[in-house]
C-alpha cells in the first residue's frame, strides 16, 4: 500500500521568507502526485499536480514542486510567502490503478506578518 | 456554481442517532469519494464509487453506508452515531480514478 510522509508538521515563518515542505512516498510503481492547500475553515484546493513530463511543476499562487523519482520525493516550494499563505498543506499520492488518493499528515504553515 | 456541494455544512447530534450527509457534483465526473478528516487534520479515504459502483470500502464500521443513486450523487448515511464519529467529512469527485480530486466544503459532524 502506498504511504505518504510529510515532516515538520508545524512551520512558522515570517512574510517574504522562503518555504519548502518535504513529501516522500513509498510506492515503487507509477504515481500521480499532488499538493493540496486547506485554508482555515475551508475545503481542500489543488495547488499543483504532477502526472508526467517536466518534473518541475508550477502551480497557483507562486508555488512549485519538484518530482525526484530516485528519492521518491515531491517537495513543495515558494520563494517568498505571504500572510495569506497561512494554511494546512497536504501532499497526496495516487498509485496508478489504486483508485484512491493517499494523503500525508499535512504541514500546518503559519506566516507572521 | 459550486462544483462539489455537501449538505449540511454543520451537523450536531446526539449519540445513537442516525444521520445522513448528501453530496452532489456538477462536474460530470465518474468517480466520487468520501474522506474523513480527524481532529489532527489527518485525511483518510472511506469509500469510492465509480459510475455508481462501489470500488473502495476501507476499514470503516458498517454503521457507515454510502449510497449512490446516480453518478452525480454520493450520500453517506451513519447509523447509531458514536462520539468517535465526530470529524469533518469531505466528499470529492474526480474525472477518472487516478486524476485529481475536487473537494466539497466539508461537513463538520459533532456527536454529543
How do the helices and strands line up, and which of them pair or pack?
The complex is a heterodimer of chains A (113) and B (112).
Chain A: E1 3-5, E2 10-14, E3 19-21, E4 24-26, E5 31-38, E6 44-50, E7 56-58, E8 64-68, E9 73-78, E10 87-95, E11 102-103, E12 107-112
Parallel strand pairs in A: 2-12
Antiparallel strand pairs in A: 1-4, 3-9, 5-6, 5-10, 7-8, 8-9, 10-11, 10-12
Chain B: E1 4-7, E2 10-13, E3 19-25, E4 31-37, E5 43-50, E6 53-57, E7 64-70, E8 73-78, E9 87-94, E10 102-103, E11 107-111
Parallel strand pairs in B: 2-11
Antiparallel strand pairs in B: 1-3, 3-8, 4-5, 4-9, 5-6, 7-8, 9-10, 9-11
Account of the protein in words:
In chain A, 0% of the residues lie in helices and 53% in strands. Chain A has no helices and 12 strands. In chain A, the strands form 3 sheets. In chain A, strands 2, 5, 6, 10, 11 and 12 form a 6-stranded mixed β-sheet that branches. The model of chain A has no long low-confidence stretch (mean pLDDT 92). By secondary structure, chain B is mainly β. Chain B is 0% helix and 56% strand. Chain B has strands at 4-7, 10-13, 19-25, 31-37, 43-50, 53-57, 64-70, 73-78, 87-94, 102-103, 107-111. In chain B, strands 2, 4, 5, 6, 9, 10 and 11 form a 7-stranded mixed β-sheet that branches. In chain B, strands 1-3-8-7 form a 4-stranded antiparallel β-sheet, with no helix packed on it. In chain B, a hairpin with a 2-residue loop joins strand 5 and strand 6. The termini of chain B are far apart. Classes of the chains: A mainly beta (113), B mainly beta (112).
